[in-house]
């Protein structure tokens, strides 16, 4: 657990190497409910989440890695595949991330729907951290291949698939990370 909400925000970091346990169901309920607090123009609630745990993780590995190999991605060497399968076998929970595209809503452009979904995912990441777990947002594992998206039940005409959150207990000490000074990214417009 983190000391204060502000400390939680400034100390959160991505943790790739995770192990069991995953959040208990009551904690996962809280984590997913936090996603519902994201800013959402038009109350479209465009975010969609697919829970993948237990034996389904090995099936996801088969589907995703086979799709990546068939795509001809030269990075998927036998060593890389072995490494990814090992990593996936240790993660107790994956959440597939997507945003439903509301094509028929001229008031809320698709980029605003995408931003709302990203904000909901950030709420999941922060809630996960606040409860003492680790998470990692991966856009590997065939994220941009329709075959993987459709295997998860997300028709590519209706959804944009955004990757997977790996969630569990950090497998090692969480090192502090040096963050840049915010002033490097901020200007003030005075109207002149």
Attribute tags:
alpha+beta; 6 helices; 5-stranded antiparallel sheet; 192 residues; NADH Oxidase; single chain; 5 strands
Average pLDDT: 95
**CATH homology-level superfamily:** NADH Oxidase
Total number of distinct structural domains: 1
Q: DSSP helix count?
A: 6
Strand content: 15-25%
Q: What is the rounded distance between the termini?
A: 46 Å
CATH class: Alpha Beta
Oligomer: single chain
What structural class should be given to the helix and strand makeup? alpha+beta
The helical percent reads 25-40%
Spans of at least 5 consecutive residues with low confidence: none
The largest sheet is: 5 strands, antiparallel
User: What would the CATH topology be?
Assistant: NADH Oxidase
Total strands: the figure is 5
Instruction: Just name the CATH architecture.
Output: 3-Layer(aba) Sandwich
Secondary-structure element pattern, one letter each: HEHEHHEHEHE
Write down the Rg: 18 Å
Shape label: globular
EC number: 1.-.-.-
Binding site for FMN: 12-14, 41, 137-139
Family: Belongs to the nitroreductase family.
Domain Nitroreductase: 10-168
